[in-house]
Structure of Lipoprotein:
Amino acid sequence: MKTGFARALVAATLVFVTACNFSPTDPDPVPSAKPSPSPTQEEADLVAALRRTQRVPHHFAVDADLPKNEHLTASGEFDVTKRLYRSSTGTLDRIVVGDDYYQREPGDSWVHVDLERLKADSQLHFGMADATGLLQFADAITDAHKTGPNTYSGRFQPDTENFKEPFLPIGAPSLWSIGMRVSPFTVTVDPKGWVVGVSMELTPTDSPTLRMDATLSALGQPLDVEKPDAQEADEAFYE
């Protein structure tokens, strides 16, 4: 693969590598059985709102603490139906249009990868079905109740042992959690019932409490994500 692409790939796979409780992964998501035995109506309403919101085009912004005193800010947009995705973390830009994946470090040239040609264990596999992690978060909720006209609070299981793809932080999934205790969250919805904010706190055994916030906006509005001019990844990358 080309040198610039190699540098970008390293950034993608190492920026969220963490101590003890987390490690990176990214195969396709497999829904897990819900941990709670019988969800209440309010919990069912929240889960339905999360799933409904995930299905429409939207913009997202992420502000999250990471282990080892790292911090992540990211923004982007996602349309699961039209298979469009764009994100920027300040150290890595990514665009996905269908099966075409583009990546660059800010200021560098874009590099194109054909997702259909990647091997199953490739580090650049991209799970478009749940690119922001909202669906897996919905599956991980253990209890929830309304705390105001537009807010829900509850607890979820961040332990992703039963998933094959990370879902944290919401909006920029990159952390694999093993043995993490059930954690609190707050979800904000707008008057129409669309999810517009998700906040949570995680308490790893080997780092301070991690605060993670995701904001969703422009719900239902069409996205303007186009393929950039890009150089092709070396053929060796697909071998």
Residues 1-36 have pLDDT under 50 and may be disordered.
